[in-house]
Specification:
With 341 residues, this protein is of the alpha/beta class. It has three domains: 5-136, P-loop containing nucleotide triphosphate hydrolases (Rossmann fold); 139-204, Orthogonal Bundle (Helicase, Ruva Protein, domain 3); 242-339, no CATH class. The chain has helices at 5-9, 20-34, 40-43, 53-61, 89-96, 125-130, 144-156, 164-172, 176-189, 197-203, 214-220, 224-237, 242-265, 270-276, 285-316, 326-339, and strands spanning 12-16, 44-46, 70-74, 102-108, 134-136, 159-160, 194-195. The strands form two sheets. Strands 2-3-4-1-5 form a five-stranded parallel beta sheet, sandwiched between helices. The chain has a two-stranded parallel sheet with strand order 6-7. Strand 2, helix 4 and strand 3 (70-74) form a beta-alpha-beta unit. Helix 7 crosses helix 8 (164-172) and helix 12 runs antiparallel to helix 16. The two termini are 41 Å apart.
Length: 341
Amino acid sequence: MALPSAWIQAEYALLHGEDGDGRRAAVEAWKAAHVDPEWADFSLLVCSEGCPWAEVQNALLESAPLGTDRVVIVPQAENLLDKPKELPATIKAMLTQPVPGTRLLLVSRAALSAAPGRILAAKPFSDWGKEGRVLKVGALDEKEAPAFVEAQARDLGLRLGSGVAARLAARMGGNPGVLRRTLEVLDLLAEDRNVGTALVDQATFRLGEQSAFAWSKAWQGGQLGQALATLRLALEDEPSGAPLMLLGQARREVDRLARLVEARAAGKGPGELLGALGLSPKQGFLLDGYGRVVDRLGADGVKRLLHLVNQADLDLKGMAFSGSKTPLLSLTISLARAWAS
């Protein structure tokens, strides 16, 4: 992923989005531009996850060794960026006029919104966006994902058959990290470097009558028992690959709910709503279903659902305390309840 130089060089910057791999790469690139490795132990401060603004302010005001800048990274800043109205006046002034000799990187694991009343639409972050100081590393839409798969496959030296990129993207969703990991599995399986649909079906899992969408169809139909049974079969059939694939499917659907909330808040019409959700005119029939879920949950309910997806992602990748697959059980229950008619 090519990172914008303007963002890398920004002394105060914001990074957000669900792509864990992309976030890690972006943080390392920003650190390389702003942290002197010889003084990193003394000049770099990493705030605790979920810290308050007071901790960030204290970190920025703590003196650094003579001749170096104080560099502060906030690795989990979602709680700080939730409600722009709650941004302390002292912090807002500091973000608008940075303290001399300081650098700051705010990182959000969830995608932030630029809808009216949301953080990216409020100063100073709206100005940051115009200045190239905000970077998103989130899910790809349905048009971008196949092209991403093809580019990653070329880098790995894989030759994809006709329609394979689109098939893989449709099955795995638009999370770049999930797509990369799937291609890495295909890289191991494709001895002749050719990847056809049969190999894609082998690398991913297929449930029941070889349907990749059995799990999502179950909870989208509000069939909790069937969804849990399908989940159990998936984990037994492919314990290493199934969790990320299931998570990719869930993220795609919940992302569409979040996009619909933002699009409605922006006053977009029915035709524009399809584009906002990444749907083609032929998929217009799906819009009513997403609309009913959003009407039932409300914006806060959709936000909580997205948080559950992000938390499951952290647990499955070993970045949270439990490190188990049990979050998929909780996620399945929540998804089934959200979609139940």
